[in-house]
Amino acid sequence: MTSRPALADLTTFRIGGPIDSLVVATTELELIEAVRAADEAGTRVLLIGGGSNLLCSDAGFDGTVIAIRTRGLEVVEIGTRVELTVAAGESWDALVSRAVGQGWSGIEALSGIPGLVGATPVQNVGAYGQDVSQVIREVRAWDRTTSALVTLSASDCEFGYRSSLYKREPDRFVVLEVVFELTAGDRGSVEYSQLARQLDVNVGDELPLARIREAVLALRREKGMVLDDDDTDTWSAGSFFTNPIIDIVTATTVPGDCPRYPSDAGVKLSAAWLIENAGIERGFGVSADSRARVSTKHTLALTNTGGATAAEIRELADVMRRRVLEVFGIELVPEPQLAGF
């Protein structure tokens, strides 16, 4: 008897129950047809790329799961401008590695982030002073509400901190291709203080792209944020909570040693600092027998130490959110998408 596929096999959390129907889409046409067929039948759809920002229910998913495995990369160089048209199913870090190797700057600080290209505009993926909204020129997508192909400019995407039009309307668009605009040149600017300290330079200094990538990968490995089959600290969805953005008045109630960053919407605080200073330590678990734990390397990551359930992860997340709310009056917002709940 053949066992049913499971969501645990498609996610970096390695958590999730059985799948009713699985479609592996290797071409754009297969992807569109699978989504359209499910929509016409009134069937629920779960799109999965790299599964690195997803917590799936232990009960599985009652509907059609579509694994995006489309491939394709086109490069056009015009002077110092490099235009990359990349299929949604391409590996993100492989793209970053290629850009660094070719001397194309703009995404080197986004090294080591798991997942596929199609997810990057959804989350407006960012790290160490860069985010993809700075280099995305346009996105081609399938609009499920109108059953039509659409091309959205960067302004159409409504990018914000870890947000976008695609995230705010999660059941509308299927990202097919992303067009990035990078800059030819083998040096990049260091725009984040932690990265600058790692490199022993000043913020704003320019360094070879390869050196920046190596430093970013080293930082991410220290935090358990680079996938490793042998390290359960990486069996996670990366940062489970976004850094909260609060108003200036509320920010005055938070201790001054809490790291804070400028934001167009107010003051952005360090979620990791809030968690740690609310009494949640690395390695924390709700109970001795819980298989869901805070990473031993970084308090923003919730991990599956082996055999953890989605219920255990959610219980841990709820305890952490309550602690921070009780101590600081600030509500943390989970970053991963929930599926099947």
Write up what this structure looks like.
The chain has 341 residues and is α+β, with helices and mostly antiparallel strands. The chain folds into 3 domains: 7-68, 2-Layer Sandwich (Uridine Diphospho-n-acetylenolpyruvylglucosamine Reductase, domain 2); 73-222, Uridine Diphospho-n-acetylenolpyruvylglucosamine Reductase, domain 3 (2-Layer Sandwich); 232-339, Alpha-Beta Complex (Uridine Diphospho-n-acetylenolpyruvylglucosamine Reductase, domain 1), CATH 3.90.78. Helix content is 25%, strand content 28%. It has helices at residues 28-41, 92-102, 120-123, 165-168, 193-199, 209-222, 248-251, 271-277, 310-328; strands spanning 19-25, 45-48, 54-56, 61-68, 73-78, 81-87, 104-105, 126-127, 130-131, 136-143, 148-153, 173-184, 187-189, 206-208, 236-239, 245-246, 260-263, 266-269, 292-294, 301-304, 337-339. A hairpin with a 4-residue loop joins strand 10 (136-143) and strand 11. The protein starts with 18 loop residues before the first strand and ends with a strand.
